[in-house]
Amino acid sequence: xxxxxxxxxxxRGLARSRTHAATLIAQGLVTVDGAPVVRASAKVGEEQSVExxxxxxxxxxxxxxxxxxxxxxxxxxxxxx
Length: 81
Hints:
S4_RNA-bd, Structural Genomics Hypothetical 15.5 Kd Protein In mrcA-pckA Intergenic Region, Chain A, S4_RNA-bd_sf, RNA binding, 81 residues, S4 domain protein, single chain, alpha+beta
């Protein structure tokens, strides 16, 4: 039975939640059977291959800002905790 793409991503463990899945889809990182899909409401079947390319390993977008600031201001963080 076909289900929404965002639900399928969360169910298959490819996203933390439906909201996270919708973000990945909107960013163009999700393909179904090799074709990019940009609608979270797109229907996918259980037999279809769903992949996420370049998934983000950070919990939030704030991490990208922190990394950019550390690089821009040349702040050494190695060995600090």
